[in-house]
Specification:
141 residues, Nucleotide exchange factor GrpE, coiled coil, 74% helix, rod-shaped, 3 helices, mainly alpha
Length: 141
């Protein structure tokens, strides 16, 4: 083997090794980019899930407040009705815990909408989410 052919073989081997390494680097960079994209997507999904969880916690807090409001309304309504010469239905003239579930659910829904309308009014907002106005007249009553 002559020195020139040995040099050509070494150069060819070096170019082949360089191309193999370049391909490996490109493959790793592509995998890294895909991983980063997945990580960003996972972060976005996590952030969305955390936001939804916070909204759910807030809704549960509101539900608890709405249930307390409905319970108070029921107790006061039943207590005051006779003073106004009104006789309430026997099915609903019971302690809150003994009310039929559909009656409780209805009163909590009404209390929730009233609370949201009151909060919106107190916060100076004139709009109420559409779900909360379902069933209300055009004038909001």
């Amino acid at each position: 083997m002559t020195p020139k052919s040995n040099e050509a073989t070494t150069t060819a081997a070096w170019i082949e090794e360089r191309n193999r390494l370049k391909a490996a680097v490109q493959r790793v960079e592509k995998e890294r980019d895909a991983y980063c994209a997945m990580t960003d997507e996972a972060r976005t999904e996590r952030d969305e899930a955390e936001a939804e969880l916070a909204e759910t916690r807030e809704a549960l807090k509101d539900y608890g407040n709405a249930e307390q409001l409905a319970r108070s309304f029921h107790e006061l309504y039943e207590a005051l009705a006779p003073e106004f010469g009104y006789e309430t239905r026997k099915e609903s003239a019971v302690h809150w815990d003994d009310l039929p579930q559909n009656n409780k659910t209805l009163m909590v829904a009404v209390a929730s909408r009233i609370a949201h309308k009151a909060n919106a009014f107190l916060a100076g907002r004139s709009t109420v989410p559409p779900l909360l106005t379902k069933g209300l007249r055009e004038d909001g009553q």
